[in-house]
Design brief:
The protein is of the alpha+beta class. It has 11 helices and 11 strands. The longest helix is centred in the C-terminal third of the chain and has 19 residues, at about 210-230.
């Protein structure tokens, strides 16, 4: 927590869920800021479903990954995998908990495959029913981040219903892509599963919301932007491109503009961490999330 002489407040806390939840949830990210300048930031594509429970102010989305979806205010939010950024605004204050959910856990936690959430944002209570408002209120009443994370552990463990309906071939292909940093070609994934490339693409998209090729793009991008934000000083873009499997620096720059809506240097200047600067974007902080692409 940082409280400056101006009265500004910055809290950004990352934590792993209880061990029994880790097949479903990668991490919790708690945030509370006060006294910031009004701003718009990008909700970036990532290999996780985004589940947000706000604390004091609703989440205000002025631009969704699907441009046909109108702007909205969300006390709770569930977002599927996507390949373009959301635009999120605040008037100087924001607070909540962001939960990174493994896409193959969507059936267990929300009762439907992640493919049905692809590219959309919706109030989480649409899928959680009564649990959504109850969990929201319990988080708001909790005393501090440790208690909030314990509330999440308890509620999500009760909600989880292990499901055998996710095809094991899709699970293997997803994990192989994650381990490779998005480097495995679709033909190799299909060969290892024993499926045709077309069948793998259809089943993979149904379970995750992305084709294997699109998932590989998002995984590479997620790795690159974490490494870019974690470096002090930031890595040279040519070196970053080679490390993350891009053809060259120009390829990295094109993919960054397509997936983030900004060049790498522009995103880092606007939303990445910087010494002495208030934390402005829960995705921009490095924290425990910097190595999550590998899991």
């Amino acid at each position: 927590m940082t409280t400056q002489a101006t009265g500004a407040v910055d809290e950004a806390v990352h934590a792993r869920p209880a061990a029994a939840l880790r097949p479903y949830v990668a991490r919790y990210s708690g945030y509370r800021q006060r006294g910031l300048a009004p701003a718009v930031h990008r909700g970036l594509p990532s290999p996780y479903l985004t589940f947000i429970l706000t604390l004091d102010e609703p989440l205000v989305i002025v631009g969704h990954p699907d441009p046909a979806q109108p702007p909205g205010r969300y006390p709770t939010l569930l977002s599927g995998l996507h390949t373009s950024p959301a635009l999120i605004t605040h008037e100087g204050a924001q607070s909540g908990v962001q939960i990174a959910v493994h896409p193959l856990a969507a059936r267990a936690l929300f009762g439907l495959p992640a493919g049905e959430l692809a590219g959309i944002d919706l109030p989480a209570e649409q899928l959680l029913g009564r649990l959504g408002p109850l969990l929201h209120e319990r988080l708001r009443a909790a005393d501090g981040w440790a208690e909030r994370f314990a509330v999440l552990d308890s509620a999500l463990l009760r909600a989880a219903r292990p499901s055998g309906r996710v095809p094991p071939e899709v699970g293997w292909a997803w994990r192989a892509l994650r381990r490779s940093g998005g480097a495995l070609p679709v033909a190799e994934l299909a060969r290892e599963t024993g499926w045709s490339a077309r069948h793998l693409q259809e089943r993979f998209r149904r379970e995750t919301g992305l084709t294997p090729k699109a998932a590989a793009r998002v995984i590479r991008f997620d790795r690159a932007r974490h490494l870019l934000a974690a470096g002090s000083p930031p890595p040279r873009l040519a070196e970053l491109a080679a490390r993350c499997g891009y053809f060259d620096q120009a390829h990295l720059a094109r993919e960054f503009r397509a997936l983030a809506g900004a060049a790498p240097s522009a995103w880092l200047a606007a939303e990445g961490p910087e010494e002495g600067k208030l934390f402005r974007n829960v995705q921009g902080g490095t924290g425990a999330a910097a190595a999550e692409w590998e899991t």
